[in-house]
Predict the structure.
Amino acid sequence: MVWRIALFVSVLLLASCGDGNWNNPYPSADRLDNTFYSSFAKRPKHLDPARSYSSNEYQFIANIYTPPLQYHYLKRPYTLIPLAASGMPVVKYLDDAGKTLASDVDVKQIAFSEYTIKIRQGIQYQPHPAFAKDEAGNYRYHDLTDKQLEDVYTLADFEQTDSRELTADDYVYQIKRLAHPDLQSPILGIMSDYIVGLPELAKQLDAAYKKAKQASGTKKGIYLDLRGFDLAGVKAVDRYTYTIKIKGKYPQLIYWLNLPFFSPMPYEAIAFYAQAGLVEKNISLDWYPVGTGPYMLTVNNPNLQMVMERNPNYMDEYYPTEGEQGDAEAGLLVDAGKKIPFIDKINFSLEREGIPVWNKFLQGYYDASGISSDSFDQAINITTQGDAALTESMQEKGISLLTAVQTSSFYTGFNMKDPQLGGYSESARKLRRAIAIAVDYEEFISIFNNGRGVAAQGPLPPGLYGYRDGEQGINPYVYNWKNGRPQRKSLDEAKQLLKEAGYPNGLNPETGDKLVVNLDTADTGPDAKSRLDWWRKQFDKLNIELNIRSTDYNRFQDKMSNGSAQIFQWGWNADYPDPENFMFLLYGPNAKVGKNGENAANYDNPEFNKLFDVMKNMDNGPERLALIDKMVEVARQDSPWLWGFHPKAFSLQHSWYKNVKPNLMANNTLKYKRLDAALRAEKRQAWNKPVTWPLYTALLVFIIVVLPGVISYRRKEHGKGGKR
Amino acid sequence: MLTYILRRLMYAIPILIGVNLITFSLFFIVNTPDNIARMQLGVKNVTPAAIEKWKANHGYDKPLLFNKNNDGMAAFTDTIFYTKSVKLFVFDFGSSDEGRDISHDIQQRMWPSLAIAIPSLLVGLLVNITLAMLLAFFRGTYIDITGVIAGIFLISISALFYIIGGQYIMSKLWHLVPISGYSEGFSGFKFLILPVAIAIVGGVGSGTRWYRTIFLEEINKDYVRTARAKGLSEIGVLFRHVLKNAMIPILTGVVVIIPLLFMGSLLTESFFGIPGLGSYTIDAIHAQDFAIVRAMVFLGSVLYIIGLILTDISYTLVDPRIRLS
């Protein structure tokens, strides 16, 4: 029996270790496949383009759907170019009567803007059962019976698939979906402010949905055919052209047109997925996207892996022929003009922990990796000039490092409604500026972020229009320009400001008590203690006592909503590379308290608000730049935030992974990447030879340990007086 | 016996109602329906109207436990607690707050959990009992003392250390098995070796010591002396007599956990990338998905009750003196 089990286990072992690498997590037959291997840590919640709004979801759906526009892969500053559109949208301004206005007309006269978008002809959807028809021309799978559904567990279980051409109607359909009550699109609120007729459509759909729900008695299988509902501001002009009419002027709309929210959606897919039998089997659009992009999702098991394969129907698209300075030298234009995508298959595996990801990357089983804090010292050396360089062991493996400052800000805000720290008096400003000098963000980045970040000088992160670099970009209230770089002002200056603010040496002159301020944060857990101690020390430099009020994120949000926080920490990641997307975080009418906006500091400076109202609708140019400079100056003077820092992304890639350039705005960059699968197979083979001597040693040790026991047992059993 | 089982199942109903009420109360002390809606809708551009609409769509717009706007039974039935709980008792877990069918997810995810848990339990049991027998056989000798000390040493090490150490040595240094991953069928065997081995090694210290104590208690009884007097070999005495009589305490510990094997292990599954049920509840707590939390706690309670009933039944199988009535 024992021998049979041993034989069975040996057969299993041999069956599962096909090639020479026993630790290869992939089938050995795939070793030379043109497959990109990566990991994801958090399973995506939504893959429906009307619902999805997070980066861990966009890494999938941005490669599956084709909105009209996309960011140029190589050019900087970030530039929008057509994707499914045949050219950039044409904007027409209209007055109240619908009369066309000149393009340079005063913004106050513009009642509506109309964007006309032409799409490329001949684009086909990925093969999908929703399009399959029977001999009579009826959709084969739109009315599935229980019997037909018996053997269906995933989308791949449908035998027949088909495709059809992308039309302008599909874009119109998707914009209507933003108003669907069951989808709860996160941008319905903001788009309702702009797209003509969207709020009215939302009301109509709400009523129709309630009626359908009451009639059927369940949520499952309710299908509203949105083709029967009118959206006044969005129309298909012809098969390949549609228009979007918005209220007033909103130049930022074109940035939204590169997001999956504005992707095409075929009504056939909605009708197909609405069937109750499929809903019960978790086969939904939220799980199996239907797109016209370079890849299609073929395996969706977010607890294990997500696999995307090349869409055989993908349109003709080519690698960019131009980039920014230095791209050609970096080898980023070697594939210029070649048809994309280059990679056949993308395999994302779920890895909840950082250690397996890092080790698999070092073994060559992942093609690229970020760097966790635990692995930082193993990968990166910080030079005496503060630059990051790869360690020798990384260089020996041919790994390369790319860094990029992210278009994000992590800031610490003051509640401007707070009687002690808020307000716009000179003393309040001085108090906040004194704290801004004392809180040494350079030290924070160095200690807690391994140097991965740059201290912020204002609300705008690098890479956005209006951001200023060098001496002209420093915050003069906190920094001096010395030796070619910003240098934080001295603590003496901070103490002087504190004195001028009415708190000499951090004491309240009336009571003689130490100034006590409160920091509200959702930063909890074992790692938070050292960070929060650091914060206490920063305030202690000014003899101010910092009282930390840590709560869970729910309580924290409640405090922010009702304005009971005094100092708080938050962050913002750019939706699009326009300064409006950061300046609106300081816009009075967008305050958190009372207006439920994103201005968490409740900053409300009339001058800033006025400048924002003008700036937000302007096209980029010297006039807009001057306004942005003024706004930044006003905000710096008031100091409603400690401007915090902009994190720096570090990424590592193996030598066989080509055409890699950080693009922090685009999410559909996989199509530009290329692999040398033969080199990868060779390296994996060399790096992962099994070390078998420990197995033999273990066997020997086992024999040495067991043998005396066996001998002793035999003696006991057979020896004289051996039995007890 | 049937009457006994039915009676135990009837006892389970108030227990399950109680468990459900406690889960509900604990969850909603920490999270409000507004928090749940906010979590589902994302952090950007969430308006109060969107929150209200989400709550209405998902049935979170009702009072928690008592609806003062209704009279009679409706005051209790038109509440979040009732509407979200009653279907559990017919094992209709409904949909998660994300909209996915929970029963379907559980069915999919329990198999990988079992793929780790069953071999870990069976091989672990075999190893622990064998080693405990060995120590009992060599009781009082240097082998026994060394075994006891080694057992204490192994108990003292954290499970996380076994996992990280195992991955480092077996996969990173020696390249013998994949560091993490999972696949179905025979090709998936290589992914199971390390987690199962670690689960066995991690449990061998406590298991061996526990079983050794049980065997030593039995080994000095009269029937063992009689068996030896009959001329049986020591192996025969241990496996045919001592083990059989030590089964009740062993079954108490083992049978009760068999149904819970479905629930998986959070730590092992997280580090080895196993797509099991271990992380399902924790993910749901992080995502404030009450539908999954209540379903998993309910399922865990049901399985535990089944485990206790199975334990009682198993006593009758190993000890003919025991009768269930």
